Amino acid sequence: MNMAQQIIADSAFGCAGQRCLAVSLVITVGEARRTFTEMICDAAATRVVGYGLDKGVQMGPVITMQNKARIESLIGKGAEEGASVPVDGRGAVIKGYEKGSFVRPTILLDMPPEGEVARTEIFGPVLGLMHFNTIDEAIALVNSGSYGNQASLFTSSGAIARRFRYEADAGNVGINIGVAAPMAVFPFSGWKESFFGDMHGQGMDAVEFFTQKKVVIERWPKDWSRKF
Q1: Is 20 annotated in the active site?
Q2: Contact 180, 173 (CB under 8 A)
Q3: Is the dihedral of CA 115, 118, 119, 120 positive or negative?
Q4: Could you say which of 14, 15, 18, 20 is catalytic?
Q5: 2-133, what's its fold?
Q6: Tens of pLDDT along 156-210?
């Protein structure tokens, strides 16, 4: 649980959440809820935010003031929809960088699955938490969304991991890793609304895109005949 919390925190708040494969929603299953919630809230509240080249800083600003305002408005929208905000990163002011576009790590607890924020890629240091009693419910939620870029599972069960690999409707699947980013020899496999086009632009898919194929059919019989 401790390692899962550390990896998920790095995934959610690394690069201030501004990467396409940053985790933005965590679903706890069964008994994991209380322990994980306490640990991730502590990790979010204690993460050191500031100018990225200053010693000890763990997270820098978001890219613009406009993006800061957008992220903070989505945090407010999540609260309006029913989520609680045990760690609120809005209104962050960093000493010496008062005009910086900083948003501290934020936790939206008990996000309603049907809410707008739950189905929005915030692209900032905001982590939503939901809870279900079974893995069936968790996978069903993953598959109900219109996007399918990546989904990760943290477990010690090989059987559950195997099931998740085949049943999760996401093109990039991670098991016990926070960012399921494949090396360039593999296709970057976003699914559903997380993909536009006919092929994925990495690995052999990229080669196929620039390849004009030719099919040649030949026959070299020793004795010519219409009998085959």
Answers
A1: yes
A2: yes
A3: positive
A4: 20
A5: Aldehyde Dehydrogenase; Chain A, domain 2 (3.40.309)
A6: 999 999 999 999 998 889 999 988 777 777 777 777 877 777 777 778 888 888 8
